[in-house]
Design a protein that fits this description.
Helices cover about 75% and strands about 0% of the residues. The chain has 7 helices and no strands.
């Protein structure tokens, strides 16, 4: 698995490990990050839930976005390049998991040094954003030969970034909690998971911090 991770981080389109290895590496990395988040509550069951939900979040977000991503390729007449694009996406998802695992110590540090639960939520989002940027760097390397061959791939890449970000934020809200919250019992998802919009809540959190 270490060899597969090294090949993924290099971003070499000609040396992509098998899809099964990419998925395993990404899932393990995401699970490690989730374990740290869940363990912050001191509840072993929540730590287990979070370790399951982080890989689930990444996998479901990708699955939800793939149909639209394929349609974009079809509309632009780039269906023949879809397999190559998929190799890049799978590699980027695996790197996202690796980067999340690397962010786990920072998540643990924030748990010990930040008392405000709203600030912790935003800091977790920042860590996930940094990990996502690392994954996008690898994805960009895979896309370079595709863009060189046909500049229309810039549009497919942009469409993936928008779809993934929009879907991932809302799905993360649905799958919460990843950290424990005072006053709430341990549960896999909140009862009101589908009752609020993640973006509205995000702006509310930002507002509380600056009051």
């Amino acid at each position: 698995m270490i060899e597969a991770a090294e090949r993924l981080l290099r971003g070499d389109a000609q040396a992509v490990p098998p899809a099964r290895a990419c998925i395993a590496v990404g899932a393990c990395g995401a699970a490690a990050f989730g374990l740290v988040l869940g363990a912050s509550s001191g509840e072993p069951l929540l730590a287990l839930f979070a370790a399951v939900k982080l890989p689930l979040l990444l996998g479901l977000t990708s699955l939800f976005c793939l149909p639209s991503f394929w349609v974009v390729h079809a509309v632009l007449g780039l269906r023949d390049d879809f397999a190559a694009a998929m190799r890049g996406l799978i590699s980027a998802q695996a790197v996202l998991g690796i980067a999340l695992a690397a962010m786990a110590p920072f998540a643990a540090f924030h748990t010990l040094s930040v008392a405000d639960p709203y600030a912790l939520t935003l800091l977790d989002g920042v860590l996930c954003g940094v990990a996502t940027l690392a994954a996008q760097q690898v994805l960009a390397r895979h896309y370079r030969p595709l863009i060189a061959r046909d500049p229309r791939h810039r549009r497919t890449l942009a469409s993936w970034l928008v779809l993934y970000a929009f879907t991932g934020v809302q799905l993360a809200w649905v799958l919460r909690p990843f950290r424990g919250t005072p006053g709430f019992g341990v549960e896999f998802v909140r009862p009101e998971a589908f009752e609020q919009n993640a973006y509205v809540v995000l702006f509310e959190h930002l507002g509380r911090l600056f009051r």
